[in-house]
Amino acid sequence: MNELFSLAGRTALVTGGSRGIGRMIAAGFLAQGAKVYISSRKAAVCDQTAKELSQLGECVSLPVDVGSVEGAQALAKAYAGREQALDILVNNAGAAWLAEFDTFPELGWDKVVDLNLKAPFFLTQALIGPLRAAATARPAKVINIASIDGISVNPQETYSYAASKAGLIHLTRRMALQLIKDNIVVSAIAPGAFRSDMNTLARDHADEVAKRIPAGRVGEDEDMAGAAIYLASRAGDYVVGSTLTVDGGVTHARG
After folding, report:
1. Does residue 2 form part of some domain?
2. pLDDT tens figures, 8-38
3. Which residue is catalytic, options 79, 161, 230, 238?
4. Is residue 1 part of a domain?
5. What CATH number does the domain containing 204 carry?
6. Which domain holds residue 62?
7. Beta bridge partners of 214
8. Quick check: is 161 catalytic?
């Protein structure tokens, strides 16, 4: 029971790990004893974040843009060049696009859906060998980072974002039922308002945003880290295909 939330001896890969929610998760994993690889599109930022997080444990930068199948395969190849097994994959890299319905562009659809929905599938596919290798000893984990906007409707006109996150929640269920046969547990997290470059309202106007949250505040780093640690650790081994909502009650208030 003392080891229920420990990640000691485990290896994780977090996409979009250089900032925002990805960085929160990476920091939490490191604090629990995991070796963590982080990946993001911008090499300099990824390298700097890995250097900063290395104060908590072993953190390695693998900068790759996973917005295409080729990118996903390149990241998988880079990881396989360093490790034989992958205990925890966090599909966190994401994008959003805000535009009115009448002028919403195809680019705003393709970029967002490719990164938010397509990339988690094809990166998991590309890393299935290391995940299966880890799963021979104990369950390997895949954690998809969705959003409450895939569960309930955000009034902002982020059409491709909402669709991609709703799709990712259902994709999580479909992947989970297949991969559990290989002792790979797939689950998801649906975050609400956390301070990040993607959620600039929560970052820059937290007090105002908090007025619309039943818990009375935006999410803190520990809230996101705790949810991810739960799913990644022994504590979450029996959570198969489910999405954990971490939003201070916003989804219920919207309903």
Report:
1. no
2. 999 999 999 999 999 999 999 999 999 999 9
3. 161
4. no
5. 3.40.50.720
6. 11-254
7. none
8. yes
